[in-house]
Amino acid sequence: MNPLQSYHSYQSLPPLAGVGTFEEAAAEGLGVQECVRRLKRYHYGFQRLWQTALARIASEPIYEIKMGLSHHAHLAAEHIGALRARVAEMRHPPLGLDIVPDAHLQRFFDEILGTSDPFAYLSGLYQHALPALRRGIERHLDETNPLADAPSVRLLKHALTEIDAMLVWGQEASARLREHAPEDTKMAVDVWLGELESWLRAAGDLDGTQERPDTPLPEPRHSAVPFVFDRVPARDERFPDPYNMGVHAEAFLHDERFADRDKVLMMYYRRLREIDVPEMMAPILYEMLQAAGDEERGGHPWLFYQEMTRQLWDEARHAMMGEVGFAKLGIDWPKLVRINFTWSKGLNEQLTPKERHAVLWYIEQGQMGKSGKRYEWEVGRDSEDPFAELIQDYDWADEVLHARIGRDWYVQGFDTVHEAAEYGSACWDKVMSDWHAWKAQGLTEHFNWWPALYQEACRLRGEDPDTTTESFDTSYAETRADLQRIAAGSG
Ligand SMILES: [Fe+2]
Ligand SMILES: [Fe+2]
Ligand SMILES: [Fe+2]
Question: How many angstroms is it from 251 CA to the middle of ligand 1?
Fold first, then answer.
């Protein structure tokens, strides 16, 4: 007879701190070596998801996909951090976390990275890659000893919950894109997805535990030539006038003649315009990572990437908070507001990753004074729009965190804060931002969209527009250059 059957806990209290039954805890399960081997493969899966998202955030035109990728980049980065820490608990350095665990698995992810159509790469990621990661983690949870390997179980259960949430978004998104794809694209993508599955099978599935079939492999389709990273931001058709610098939002915000609830409209615009920060941060991270290869990760420890990706996601959230603000008021922002991309485009095209990081910190630390984030929150509070107060409250808290991240990872490279600021300012000075040239080249008319937005807000409130407010017509053209740069910069 199995002795466990006659063993009982004291007063039948739930045993083993709730981690499992005696049968489960007495099973052999995975040894440390096998556990670490598998954790490194999940780590690789999350790494590739993270890097693929970073590679697409700027150049992907569709706003919802940019936002979804920003979110998933953050979630992946958090799980990468947790897995790295767990492997480090069980093994002495070198941990080998940056070694590609399997050439076929690498090919599988390179194929996804190499596609340019969002329908294809979202299908690859969310119909194949994440489900494979999920299968591996489920097997791990089934096979490992819940008492001996409890710390892994805890982090893998957490990962599973977030993978499921990612799958809901990703599968829904790829299904919607499929509905809009032409027949021949759908057929081509389906053929490719079949090939993708072959690479995965040849790797013994993502976790490398399955039989590897002895069948011929397909020719690489999207990874036959190395991936070329595109750092130039692109936008969808709801951003038809991306060089428009016709409305000086900050001049309006700081003008005492105007009412707080009207200033809220400008704050929603400023929030939505923060879409340009993920567009600018993702290439910093992607390029730094590529610069020195995975092993040195561009000279930064992993935590740098994890914290910067959190910041990237915050900036995406701020953009969506602005979107919600407009939607909540019933304002058709794609029609009435011209969100530009001049900041992310200028920085991405003209500065090195380090210089861009310098500008980002320089602008964000400039928001820490009384006239920055605190002021915006005060406007929200006094506007009688509780939603505006709420989002400014969180925007402020997040930006304080970003200033701290900047101090830890950017300022520490200088002898003094003053030097760091000088360098950030000098980098910002290098970026050519020519209001008049853009107009002369026909890129934009710098149309003043404010009166129509304001009139619509008044119509929705059932009020007559105020003449002074309605006639606000200050663009970024006439502002002193240095102020213009600070004011028009996101962060
Ligand atoms: Fe923000
Ligand atoms: Fe921001
Ligand atoms: Fe920020």
Answer: 18
* Among 195, 50, 49, 180, CA closest to 119: 180
**46 CA distance to ligand 1 middle (Å):** 27
Q: Which of 462, 453, 248 is nearest to 331 (CA)?
A: 453
| Residue 298: pLDDT over 70 | no
CA of 410 to the centre of ligand 2 (A): 17
DSSP 155-215: HHHHHHHHHHHHHHHHHHHHHHHHHHS-HHHHHHHHHHHHHHHHHHHHTTTTTT-S-----
How many angstroms separate the alpha carbon of residue 78 from the centre of ligand 1?
21
Distance CA 265, CA 469 (A): 12
Residue 306 CA to ligand 2 center (angstroms) comes to 17
- Which of the four CATH numbers 1.10.620, 2.40.50, 3.40.50, 1.10.8 does domain 249-488 have? 1.10.620
* The pLDDT of residue 292: 67
Instruction: Indicate whether 482 pLDDT > 80.
Output: no
Fold of 20-202: Ferritin (1.20.1260)
Å from CA of 222 to ligand 2 middle: 35
- Cα 271 to ligand 1 centre (Å): 6
Q: What whole-number distance in Å separates Cα of residue 434 and Cα of residue 249?
A: 18
From the CA of 267, which ligand is nearest?
1
Q: Is this model's pTM higher than 0.90 or not?
A: yes
Ligand lying closest to the C-alpha of residue 307: 3
- Over residues 176-193, the mean pLDDT reads 97
437: CA distance to ligand 1 center in Å? 29
Q: Of all residues in the chain, what percent carry a pLDDT higher than 70?
A: 96
- Locate the domains of the chain by residue range: 20-202, 249-488
Residue 200 CA to ligand 3 center (angstroms) comes to 38
Ligand 1 centre to CA of 399 (Å) is 6
Rg, Å, the chain Cα set:
26
Predicted local confidence at residue 434, as pLDDT: 83
Average pLDDT, the chain: 94
Q: What is the pLDDT of residue 485?
A: 53
Where is average pLDDT lowest: 134-143, 396-405, 429-438? 429-438
116 CA to centre of ligand 2 in angstroms: 28
